[in-house]
Amino acid sequence: MSKPILTEADQERIREAVDRAETQTAGEIVPYIINRSGHYEIAFWRGGALGALIAGAIGLLIAWLYSGWGLGWLYSAWGMALVMSLGGVLAALLVGGIPSLRRWMAGPGRVAQRVHRRAEAAFLEEEVFQTRDRTGILLFVSLFEHRIEVIGDAGINTAVAQEDWEEVVHRIRTGIKQGQFADGLVDAIKMCGELLHRSGVGIRDDDEDELSDDVRIRNE
């Protein structure tokens, strides 16, 4: 059984961090963690095609350099087709087993696009827009892609520029790299509350907790 992304204790710490951060701002912080934003089937096709080409080139090179009788089958069409097929299958399996290779074969542009679209979908799914002053904010972490996005609603975007979230993203990423995911997320949530407060998204006297403080975890 695989280790959970966050323990129950970690999730409770994150919930408490959101609750504390929202005591100083009208912002509604929604942490959202997903194991992957896409499957990137094109990476398998690209890997397979590349593997077939490499295997074919190696087969031709061997046939050209080897002067014996043992590899005569390489000179046949079926022999070369077999070599290329095996190379393609092995390469596709390799792409499937190595996440960094799959991301590379999919291409950084495609990966970034998939994550952004999935973050936008999460924004709608969790109804982050359903706040009185449009002050919802989504902290979206896509683990397989190693990407983090911060999406603020209209009331947030008028006060905080997108580049202002860079340190928030950095703290989450640092926590993941150090094997302290929960610590990084808690630290980032705390910073969110401070940044929103400094930016004028202050709490009102009649403020209500409009969105759940729980961290959302999705496996797809």
Name the shape in a single word. Answer: elongated
Strand order across the largest sheet: 3-2-1-4
Task: Calculate Rg over CA atoms.
Answer: 24 Å
What is the CATH third-level topology name of the largest domain?
Diaminopimelate Epimerase, Chain A, domain 1
Order of helices and strands: HEHHHHEEHHHE
Helix share, percent:
40-55%
Q: State the name of the first-level CATH class of the largest domain.
A: Alpha Beta
Mean pLDDT: 89
Tally of distinct domains: 2
Treating each run of at least 4 consecutive H or I residues as one helix, how many helices?
8
Which architecture of the largest domain would the CATH scheme give at its second level?
Roll
Unreliable stretches: none
What is the CA-CA span between the terminal residues?
17 Å
Percentage of residues in strands = 5-15%
Largest sheet: 4 strands, mixed
User: SS-based structural class?
Assistant: alpha/beta
Counted beta strands: 4
